[in-house]
Amino acid sequence: MGKSQKPALALVCLLLGVSLVGCDDGRAGAENAAKQLASAIEALDVGSVAFEGKDSGAANEQLKAVFKDLEPARPSVDAGEVRLESDLATVPLDYSWKIGTGEWKYTTSAQLKKSGDKWLTVWNPATLAPGLTEDEIIGASTQAPARADILGAGDVPLVTSRLVVNVGIDKSLLSPEDVGSSATALALLVGADPAAYAQQVQAAGAEAFITAIVLRQDGRTVTEGQIAAIPGARAIPDSMPLAPTRTFARALLGSVSEASAEQIEGSGGALKPGDSTGTGGLQQRYDAQLRGTDGVEVFAETPGLTVEEQEALPNGPRRLLFQVPARAGTPLKTTLDPSLQLLAEGVLAKIGPASAIVALRPSTGAVLAAASGPGSNGYDTALLGQYAPGSIFKIVDSLAMIRNGMTPDSMVDCPPTLTVDGRTFKNAEGYPASSLGSVILRDAFAHSCNTAFINARETVGQPQLESAATALGIAVPAPSLGAAAFLGSVPGTATGTEHAASMIGQGKVLLSPLAAAVMAGSVAKGDVLSPQLVLNPDAGVEAPAGGSSATASVPAAPQTATPSGSPTETGATPTSSADAPATAAGPPVTAAEAAALADMMRAVVTSGHAGFLASVPGAPVGAKTGTAEFGTDNPPKTHAWIVAVHGDLAVAVFVEDGGFGATTSGPLLAEFLTAAG
Question: How far is residue 242 CA from its own chain's centroid?
């Protein structure tokens, strides 16, 4: 009975005095059955649905088998308008699936048959997916796009796909009694732990290939012949996203590897087993941008067929139902100069303690090199280190003093010692006696007179120090950098010995090597410098949860400096970036102020501690050395610092347990500047 007959039927029922329920054309029952079917399919459980021609349990098992490859996705299913024809009803079912980044929508038709006072669903696999036959199931496959590159200055590839070989044991080529000896021999060849690798190989399946090491194809010393000489050993060619060398900016860039269970669980469905993802550094921070999105194909196929049977099918083994094309990742553009980065890493290669070299271009703020030495043990000392800066902080002191009306030629008092609230401060060992007493500020700066700058505490309050620091681009966030970084912490309030210690870059004053380079770069620029590393932080994708924004929290530093109790200087305890002010506390450094600071930095080379930089070719070098005590040893250990400007280049060199800035970090700086040209 058609829909147009329903009002007439209702009128007849009323005239006869019969209830509508008793005189129902069956539509209500059919509609209820259709809704129940849609809800059951949506839940992927039709065990409660009554079928015509199929046991409910068997239908439920078949449904689960049909959609198994799409797990954990579930469809949204809506029943459309029921069409009645006597004891038969037809209802459209509108499906919607979230598949990858796409939405698979389709409509099928379900048939209902009235049996007594019940409506049964006529079993038909095509109700589940378009054209599905009794023997078919739904399959799905993903196609991962190639990971995008990380680029350096001038869009030179830094991290790109490079040829590698997976060296390992193929157990299918060995008898059980030979597995242990082959695994041990291969581990010894490639430098892996023999016992651990042999155990791993023994525990793997009989047909497994177990990788011992992944070697770069370019320049590898383990040869094909050496590998082939070991029974069961193989070298399988592959490619991986890699930097130019194993150590190249590793702490900054991060690495790429197969996603761990923890990463998959925390990805909100973005990662699945077998996916590659970034770990640490920029690779992790911009993983979504670099990874792109997988392509997905959904198809109908008949499982269990032999290769011959699949080839005999007229339309092939798979019938495509839905497709989401893969979207390639977007390359991440950075300012890193590969030659300067390699140079910085080479200069630090033999330094035992944690160390760093950061080089910036003052005119643009571009970070050209951010190298952390081998002693940093994988930590990004260059950008995240938190250390007392010692006397390089006298650049900040000097700006505050200039803002109080002084000039490089103003007279200051530099006594051998100075007592503040019962605590005695003195100058560093070897301070020239000729620069004691009443000297000009330029001379006190060039020879790094601690007592002269501590004496200035009477006219330079702690808030002025903080203001001068922010005027030089430090102790503030780094919103344009595009990477996690620490730009320093300078307390806005301090009195007594704490304020005195701040005047010589100790107490609670902290800088990173990046911050030190920014401070020097602001002098060279004649304006506050805002460092930039990532040029397209928002390209390609929305920011992933947890951070692809330009600012980030700063991890705790791996070392903690504690007050030394030294009469010369005190140490400091690292603090988080939350201690830095959100905005600059004072106006940026002016060109005139920067010129005065540059004059004093040049004096460090012409008449002070850094005379060894006078021979650096090219533009005149200006510098400031720094030594900061830390720890509880007696005598205390010291951080060695030096910052310099050289044309359109600002550089900071840091060695954590390095003695004096002039004697340890200074020669490293000279080597870097000379080679940089």
Answer: 15
Give the SS3 label for residue 575. coil
CA distance 588 to 573: 27
For CATH 3.90.1310, the residue range(s) in the chain are 150-324
Q: What angle do CA 353, 355, 359 make, to 5 degrees?
A: 170
Is there a contact between 655 and 365 (Cβ–Cβ < 8 Å)? no
Q: How far is it, in rounded angstroms, from Cα 144 to Cα 295?
A: 6
DSSP H or E stretch at residue 182: helix 179-190
What would the mean pLDDT of 609-631 be, rounded to a whole number?
A: 93
**Considering only CA atoms, which of 370, 391, 351, 339 is closest in space to residue 154?**
339
Mean pLDDT over each residue of the chain, to the nearest integer: 88
pTM: 0.81
* Residue position matching structure tokens 């103003």: 410
Residue 253 three-state SS? helix
User: 589 and 399 in contact (C-beta within 8 Å)?
Assistant: yes
What is the location of CATH 3.40.710.10 in the chain?
338-535+552-676
User: What is the model's pLDDT at position 480?
Assistant: 86
Q: How many CB atoms lie within 10 A of CB 196?
A: 11
Q: Where in the chain is the domain with CATH 3.10.450.100?
A: 3-134
Give me the pLDDT at residue 272, please. Answer: 81
Distance CA 645, CA 521 (A): 7
Inter-residue contact 577 to 477 (CB < 8 Å)? yes
Tokens of 602: 């040049």
Distance CA 280, CA 278 (A): 6
Q: Tell me, which fold does domain 338-535+552-676 have in CATH?
A: Beta-lactamase (3.40.710)
**Whether the Cβ atoms of residue 624 and residue 505 lie closer than 8 Å to each other:** no
Q: Tell me: the pLDDT tens digits for 504-555?
A: 999 999 999 999 999 999 999 999 999 999 999 988 655 443 333 333 333 3
For 218, residues 6+ apart whose C-beta sits below 8 A from its C-beta are 162, 163
Rounded to 5°, the CA angle 631-633-639 comes to 50
Nearest-angstrom CA–CA distance, 430 and 268:
60
* Torsion sign, CA atoms 319, 320, 322, 326: positive
- From the CB of residue 614, how many other CB atoms can be counted at a distance below 10 Å? 11
CB 169 within 8 A of CB 205: no
- Averaged over 367-384, what is the pLDDT? 97
Rounded Cα–Cα distance for residues 396 and 585 (Å) = 13
> What's 150-324's CATH class?
alpha beta
284 half-sphere exposure, CB direction, 13 A CA radius: 19
Residue corresponding to tokens 């010894």: 188
Architecture of domain 3-134: Roll (3.10)
Q: What pLDDT, on a 0 to 100 scale, did the predictor assign at position 64?
A: 97
φ/ψ region of 255 (left if φ > 0, alpha if ψ in -120 to 50, else beta) reads beta
DSSP 489: B
Q: Which residue has the tokens 């970090």?
A: 665
Span 4-19, average pLDDT: 42
| Model pLDDT, residue 20 | 38
Please check whether residue 649 is in contact with residue 676, taking contact to mean a CB–CB distance below 8 angstroms: yes
